[in-house]
């Protein structure tokens, strides 16, 4: 085979811990969802459980959620990595990273429980856990591929040119990038802002384009410009429909109900997600009226 066709798929040693952490995270998440689905499907069965069959963990009538085990593993691996920070090698860090990935998966799988402080695992609010897992996998994947947040701090000018002008220009670019990220997040584009921290041109595109209609930016800038709000609503519904269809299908598949969503369910989800932001002065005006004497 010609030398030009040889490919090197070796993982750089510096990314080995993160790679195995991500693999442990993904495997643990899917294994956990499979076990939970199995337990749920056999919840009403009166047949005696065999020793190898998964079951809920509990003691004295107390149900122990797997987020508790995840927190313990995350804390243990965190302390281990801090201890290894000085003299630890790649193998030790990789082992600790695997434990961290397992614990993080158990925690994020019940992220909705932590957020709502109630057991919403199988409800609509429980989809927040799946969203949190998607975000974690996306960030870890970008890091493994070599993308770094605010990577302009690693450019040669920062390391080689120690003049005030050079350093000031890098800091100015950093501040500008962070401001763009804030604008993108205020426009309601969480994924664009998240990935844009690794791929800066996305922040520029997200900052220029229309805000999502329910976002703070739309509340401040579009409530007195009905034409622009209408454009934002129409664009949101047109662009979000295929995304919502794919998202509902994937979330249902992971949550245990794999089916392609019908139009009624997609429209219902769109109606919940796509709404015009209220005018910023409406609440202030109502509060003022409440304070005035009758």
From TrEMBL:
Region of interest: Disordered: 271-294
TM regions (residue ranges): 20-39, 64-86, 93-117, 132-152, 164-185, 191-211
Domain of life of the native organism: Bacteria
Keyword check for Transmembrane helix: yes
The keyword Transmembrane helix belongs to this UniProt entry's keyword annotation: yes
Entry keywords, A to Z: Membrane, Transmembrane, Transmembrane helix
Name recorded for this polypeptide: Membrane protein
């Amino acid at each position: 085979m010609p030398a030009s066709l040889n490919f090197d798929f070796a993982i750089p040693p510096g990314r080995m811990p993160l790679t195995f952490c991500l693999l442990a995270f993904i495997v643990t998440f899917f294994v956990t969802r499979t076990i939970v689905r199995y337990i749920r499907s056999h919840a009403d069965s009166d047949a005696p459980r065999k020793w190898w069959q998964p079951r809920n963990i509990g003691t004295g009538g107390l149900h122990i959620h797997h987020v508790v085990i995840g927190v313990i593993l995350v804390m243990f691996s965190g302390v281990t990595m801090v201890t290894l920070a000085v003299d630890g090698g790649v193998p030790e860090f990789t082992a600790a990273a695997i434990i961290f990935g397992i614990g993080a998966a158990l925690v994020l799988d019940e992220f909705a429980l932590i957020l709502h402080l109630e057991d919403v695992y199988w409800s609509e609010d429980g989809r927040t856990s799946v969203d949190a897992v998607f975000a974690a996998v996306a960030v870890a994947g970008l890091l493994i591929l070599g993308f770094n947040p605010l990577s302009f701090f690693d450019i040669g000018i920062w390391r080689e040119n120690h003049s005030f002008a050079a350093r000031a220009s890098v800091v100015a670019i950093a501040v500008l990038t962070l401001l763009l990220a804030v604008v993108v997040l205020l426009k309601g584009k969480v994924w664009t802002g998240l990935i844009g921290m690794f791929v800066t041109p996305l922040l520029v595109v997200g900052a220029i384009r229309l805000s999502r209609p329910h976002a703070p930016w739309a509340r401040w800038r579009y409530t007195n410009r009905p034409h622009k709000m209408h454009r934002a609503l129409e664009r949101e519904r047109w662009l979000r429909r295929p995304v919502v269809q794919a998202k509902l299908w994937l979330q249902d598949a992971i949550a245990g109900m794999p089916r392609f969503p019908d139009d009624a369910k997609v429209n219902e989800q769109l109606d919940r997600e796509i709404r015009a932001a209220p005018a910023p002065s409406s609440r202030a005006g109502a509060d003022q009226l409440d304070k005035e004497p009758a």
